[in-house]
Fold this protein.
Amino acid sequence: MRSMIWILWPAFLSAAIAEFGFFAIADPQELYWMGEPVKFSVTTTYSLGFLFFWLICTGSSVLTYLLLPPKVRKALAEKPEMPKIES
């Protein structure tokens, strides 16, 4: 479960940046899908766009995680001990 945080959080941030960049250039009401104009509301188009970017970025994060050496993956999955604070 801890590994999912290492995958999904960077993908979420990357998807947000990608969506901001994409929709700063493209108008959601002028998009086409398979030759047909997109007939969703603007909010739905933004939401679907974000989910699409998040899916792509999650795939990239999963691939990066799988390419890590096994020792690093094991270290990321372990919960670190909290340091003792002496008062």
